[in-house]
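Retro notes, item 3 of 5
We never archived the inputs for the glyoxylic acid complex last cycle. Fixing that now. Sequence and ligand:
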Amino acid sequence: MSTVESEADASRLAWRSLWSSLAPIGRDPASGGYVRLSWSPADLAARDWFVTQAEARGLAVETDRNGNLWAWWGDPASGGAVVTGSHLDSVPHGGAFDGALGVVSALLAVDALRSRAVTPQRPVGIVVFTEEEGSRFGVACLGSRLLTGAVDPERARALTDATGTTLAQALAAAGLDPASIGPEPDRLARIGSFVELHIEQGRGLAQPVGVASGIWPHGRWRLQFTGEGNHAGTTLMADRRDPMLTAAFAVLAANKEARLLGGHATVGRLSVHPNATNAVPETVTAWLDARAAEQSTLDTLVANVRRRVAERAERDGTTVEVAVESVSPAVAFDAALRDRLVATLGPDTPVLGTAAGHDAGVLATAGVPAAMLFVRNPTGVSHSPAEHVTDDDCVAGVAALARVLEDLAC
Ligand code: GLV
Ligand code: MN
Ligand code: MN
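Structure as it came back at the time:
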């Protein structure tokens, strides 16, 4: 076997070994997907896994005031740090790679640099952001938003999950002080550059690794429809004030507006009260996720849906209240950093945008030079148990990240 072949085998083995140690955590055997909602037992186990792995590498681990985990190779106080990482929480029954790929790759990239005896001139950090998906408390990228000051701590503390537990309660239960969450400008100022490696979440990448150009503006809106709860058998059709009808109209209107405007709109979550087969519901809550290439298109899409749904509610005898859960502006990643990544990885490296949100986007919006590496997704499926990346592409991602970190830190 040639040296090149044995190195490739070693990289695959290292990948498999570390990946397998995380893989069982939070995996639902019934769906085959991952349920790692932030601060849940599965999320805590994944965080413990990270701390164990980082400490085994002699990295200094700290938890910031917002619950994000940082592992340092070198002293972060010296500034200009090169930071990588991603998140370990998941959407309900999500895929194995979304977020986790970036964290596992970061640890292996550090291993790769060390095995080549690379000595960074700048501190290298690995971060695990908390509640990136917003699957428990509704606000996407909550950990990085708190860190950068993009969400008001008072509002964040009061966010509730599906059972009514507040973020403040969840943080306190995990041993954090909810009173101290909020912006950490000093911590941000230490970051010279942030590079997040992530599975590409569409069918945009035909090569193993690409570089991100930017992120579509996007957001989440909670629509609460209220009517009159009543008996499904005895209530005349003409007498009904059924919020399910208004909600159903909203789903169709969002789909139509997105198609007309070239945006994306999804209603992927519903809550019905009292949720009984033989009762006209009293309330229906629907969550609208909307995205578009341009902010003006997104604004028009959401405004059109709101207008048409309000008209429909009048006809149904229902009411609709709309609350903004989180919005993210368009992101154009730092051009100089993006070009540097392409120069490091080779001029044929594809540069592509995405409609998926990321902590790197939040950091970029806060003025941190940020970039992303995408790893090929052979089916384009994500936020689903079917999400997949081949071992060879995972290994290629680690190698690319290691080269980028070496270039930036040395
Ligand atoms: C995060 O994955 C998002 O785009 O919602
Ligand atoms: Mn995701
Ligand atoms: Mn993600």
